[in-house]
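Before the break, one more example. Copy the sequence into your notebook; we will annotate it together after we see the structure.
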Amino acid sequence: MSARHSKPLCTYCGLRTGATRDHVPPRALFAKPRPDLVTVPCCEVCQKSQSLDDEYFAQMISMKSDTMDSASIRAARESALRSLTKPAKRRFAARFLGSIRDLALYSPSGIYLGQKLSYDVSHSRLCNVIERTTRGLYLHEFGQRLPDDHRSKVWAIGGFDLAVPAILAQIQKFWGHAASGKRRDFGENVFTYWVRKIDGPEDATVWDFLVYGSVAFLAVTGPGVGQAPPSVPPMS
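Here is what the structure looks like once it is written out:
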């Protein structure tokens, strides 16, 4: 078979044929009828490991107290509550329920505002979903897979209140740079992203993501992308 008619490589691993199609953003974020989503070539090996992470991603974010209201968010929250009662999800339910605790709230000036419930979440799993989404949207935006010599790195913005001022300033600079670029929305208060190339010869890009109107992620692609900042706090 000629290269012209051969199937494309998997968007994510670049090693196997993209025999299936993957949706970005993940379909688990949306209630039916879903909006038109981007689809990209994906191999069966990569796709097999994705559905549980996508479900976890939607459920954990939908249970945050400050998410906006929409049909998709309500559907994800109801799915999360159903999961807590399924025998097959018993271990997940025990971990989740055991992590719920009261969290003290303070104003920026230090005034105590009361308590609210908080729960633990695997931010690495959340970032893995956004990292995959970044790779899929990179293909959509630029017409090619992320180059093999580039990396894609994702940070959950909620953790940057733990960073030193110099790091916070750099994060804000990156966020503002992406937010001045192209914007696209999927669904009502479900998924928004901004993307812009970083000036320079290496074709680096910076991305802002906002999920369910409340949870923000920053992604950067390019050669030599740095390591993640410190772990982020629980969700509430």
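Residues 126-222 form one domain. Helices lie at 44-48, 51-62, 71-83, 90-99, 123-142, 165-179. Try to locate both features in your own notes.
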